[in-house]
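USER:
I wish I could look at a protein chain and see how it folds. I am handing you a single protein, as its sequence and its fold in token form. As I understand it, each token names a local backbone shape. I hope you can help me see how the letters and the tokens relate. The protein I mean follows directly.
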Amino acid sequence: VQLQASGGGLVPTGGSLRLSCTASGRTFSSYGMGWFRQAPGKEREFVAGINWSGGSTYYADSVKGRFTISRDNAKKLVYLHMNSLKPEDTAVYYCAATRSYLATAQADFGSWGQGTQVTVSS
């Protein structure tokens, strides 16, 4: 599966943004999906994940209650709705696909999008 993330931009603290991940390939609905982010000078970290059906979602503690991951298998899209954004959310955000159940480790994700920049101004 090939992935392309979009929707990043510059938002003020407390603002909202929705990221999209467009997938290609006929097997998209069989993959779990995840969002990761990488801030300048830091390692890439897990943000949110969703299983193949959308019935299970899970989040990093740092975004729980503020971010929501969802998917539309018919449209081959995965979304990351981000609310109450903070300057520490500034990073390049990546979507990724996995065959593993409720995966959070980068090594479990075999396909990656190119990343989209999110900048939260203070």
Notes: The chain has no helices and eleven strands. The radius of gyration is 13 Å. The chain has a mean pLDDT of 97.
